[in-house]
Design brief:
Shape: globular
Largest sheet: 9 strands, mixed
Number of strands: 9
Strand content: 15-25%
Number of domains: 1
Radius of gyration: 19 Å
Distance between the termini: 70 Å
Length: 237
């Protein structure tokens, strides 16, 4: 008898889920992109918290004056306060990040993105921590803004350079400079990120209207929020 009741209840539950409108089921999904990026977005912090976390990441990066100098020269920056690898995210790896463009000594408002797949090169086990991608060339920034599904790797025609505080190479020659303070990594850190897609729902929630990444970084969005102003003020101009 009990088994019959459990079966009926389970069937009712499945039926109730199936009747939920598609808009409601997809409320937390990015505007476009892979299923991995969508799964990541469902586990994301809200936009306000993500911007606050990004600010703390910038404060951490600025402790290295050498890297702060590169930040000042960047065309843009993509900050992922918590990148995870392993079993923490559905699909294997991912994170949520904010993009800001840098022009004429001013930083734009943040635009929101989701990552569906990340490779960290030689490493063992899982890893978690902040990662930032400095976009040093116009191509890197433009490709990021224009693509519906962007990849930060050599296949995208970009030179990716991993930053090291003790490195001797001139990383400033790269299209993208990768900084990370992730725990759990072993060996070299060669970051390659794919399935980077715009999180249109977070953009809408944050600015109160439908707005594109291009409009945000062009200065057509004014957040007027203290956490966004704090993030911009922390970034070297």
């Amino acid at each position: 008898m009990n088994r019959l009741l459990y079966t009926v209840a389970a069937m009712a539950l499945v039926g109730s889920i199936a009747t939920v409108p598609a808009e409601a089921r997809n409320a937390n999904m990015p505007a476009s992109g892979s299923s991995q990026a969508q799964a990541t977005a469902q586990q994301a912090p809200n936009a306000d918290q993500l911007v606050r976390d990004a600010t703390r990441t910038v404060q951490e990066m600025k402790r290295d004056q050498k890297f702060a100098g590169y930040m000042k020269k960047a065309k843009g920056i993509f900050i992922v306060p918590t990148m995870v690898k392993g079993s923490l995210i559905v699909g294997g790896a991912g994170g949520q990040g904010v993009l800001l463009a840098h022009k004429n000594g001013q930083w734009s408002e943040p635009a929101f993105f989701s990552l569906g797949s990340v490779s960290f090169g030689a490493q063992a086990g899982g890893a978690a921590g902040p990662v930032a991608f400095l976009l040093m060339s116009d191509k890197a920034l433009n490709d990021f803004v224009e693509s519906n599904n962007f990849s930060l790797n050599a296949n995208a025609g970009l030179t990716i350079v991993t930053y090291s505080a003790h490195g001797q190479a001139d990383v400033g020659k790269g299209d993208v400079i990768v900084w990370s303070n992730m725990s759990g990594l072993q060996g070299s850190l060669n970051v390659s990120a794919t399935d980077i897609v715009r999180n249109g729902n977070e953009d809408h929630n944050y600015y109160g209207r439908d707005i594109s990444t291009k409009q945000i970084i062009a200065g057509q969005a004014t957040a007027a929020k203290p956490e966004a102003n704090k993030l911009k003020s922390e970034l070297p101009s």
